[in-house]
Amino acid sequence: MFTLDAGSVELRLEVVPVRSLLQHERTLESTIKKLIFEFKNWANLQNPIIVDENHVVLDGNHRARVFQALEYSYIPVCKIDYFNDSVKLRYWFRHLRHVPSRADVEEVFHESRCELGLLTGAREIIPELEKDPLKFGFRMGEWFGTGKFPTDQVTGAVEVYDALENLQELLKRGNITLEYIPCQFMNDGE
Prior knowledge:
- The chain is an alpha+beta fold.
- It has helices at 29-41, 61-69, 102-111, 125-131, 157-173, and strands spanning 2-5, 10-17, 49-51, 57-59, 74-79, 93-97, 115-119, 135-140, 143-148, 177-180.
- The chain has a five-stranded mixed β-sheet with strand order 1-2-5-3-4, covered by helices on one side. A five-stranded mixed β-sheet has the order 7-9-8-6-10, sandwiched between helices.
- The longest helix is centred in the C-terminal third of the chain and has 17 residues, at 157-173.
C-alpha cells in the first residue's frame, strides 16, 4: 500500500482482489466491449478505480467489469473516505447517438419528468454542472445539454442514478445509442 496525503483527503493506493469489489451501477455493454479490446491490446491501467473502505466502486465501474470479464485476479485501486467533505461527485455524461430528432429526446425527458436545458456548446457544460451536483450532461451530435430531475423525485446521488437508469432505458427503447464519455473528454470533437 502507498499513501498520499493530499491535504484534506488521504489517498491510499493498493492492489486488491477483483472479486472483492462491490459494484453498484449498471454498465454500458458497448463501453465494456471497447475497453476489453483496449485492455487486451494495451496492458496498462493508467487510472486506478476509486473505492471506499468497503471496496464499493465509486468511480471506474466499467474498468472493474472489464477486469472481471478478462478474469484478472487483481486490480489497482485508490481508496478514499467517501464521507470526507473534500470528496465531490463527478458528472454523469453521455453521448446520445442515432437520435431520430431532438423532439424524440425532449419527449423522453418529459416522460421522465426531467428538465431539459440546451446549451450552445460543450464548454458550457462543466460550469453548468458545477452549479448543481444533481444535474447531468449529454451530447446529441452538435447539441449539448443538461438535465435535472425535480427535487420531489430525487434528493441525492443514489436517486439521481436510479432516475438516470430509467431515462437511459427509455432512450434505448427509442433505438438511441448511449456512449459513456469520461468528463475529461467532454470537449473532444468540439
